[in-house]
Amino acid sequence: MKISSIPHRAALCWAAFLAFNFCGFAPALQAAVAPTLRVLFLGDTGHHRPADRFKQLQPALAPRHIEVDYSESLDDLSPAKLAGYDCLLVYANWTQISPGQEQALLDFVAAGGGFVPLHCASYCFLNSPNYIELVGGQFLKHGTGVFKETIVNSDHPITKGLSPIESWDETYVHAKHNTNRIVLAERRDDTGVEPYTWVREHGKGRVFYTAWGHDERTWSNAEFVGLVENGIRWASENSPSQLKAREGLAPFGPGRTGAV
Q1: 50: in domain
Q2: For the chain, how are helix, strand and coil distributed in percent, rounded to 5?
Q3: Is this prediction's pTM over 0.90?
Q4: In a domain, 9, yes or no
Q5: Cβ distance 37 to 69 under 8 Å?
Q6: Which whole-number Å values give the CA distances from 217 to 58, 114, 119, in the listed order?
Q7: pLDDT in tens, 152-175
């Protein structure tokens, strides 16, 4: 008696079909469900031209699942607006902040939101000692020139794998240093050593600051873009808005439902 091989061949074809389509579909599915960080970029209309810097940064971060929105309104420093973001990035020269706006910012970070003040943001909101303390220092003065930073904490998640930045920029000197911080990089010259990039924590939230970033020359530097990306990711780690797997769920797979 001859047994037909058709059912067996059909089964093999079906298995091959499933394997091919699943393998082809899995990366797309993985990309589709990859968590996207949402960042509010607060700028102004001043000489640092934040809108132009946003146009450099946004397309670099979008493929990396970091969505950046731009604003020039201090009204966006409100609980309702900030609740839609994982991180607030400030690159501006606003000199004043209202008590309500200050409280919204402090509460956002204390609850786990990320805060990324860049360059001139260390000279924002001069009427707020709480803001200066949150940043970790305040701009005092600067020169200019091409220089190369010295990374002093290469094992930190933000600087790990990055090369030192070398670019033309303003040589920031800071005052009102908050010693409750971790310095990641310094600027060194004949006058001494200046902390240049650092991190700190506030409540459940994290703060990343770098003095780099005066104009397009630094913002087009790949190491600077990598530094900012890593800083955003690190600062946003505890964001209550970030989409994360619920604790207690097992990985999906054959015979698994996701529950334990």
Answers
A1: yes
A2: 35, 25, 40
A3: no
A4: no
A5: no
A6: 16, 26, 14
A7: 999 999 999 999 999 999 999 999
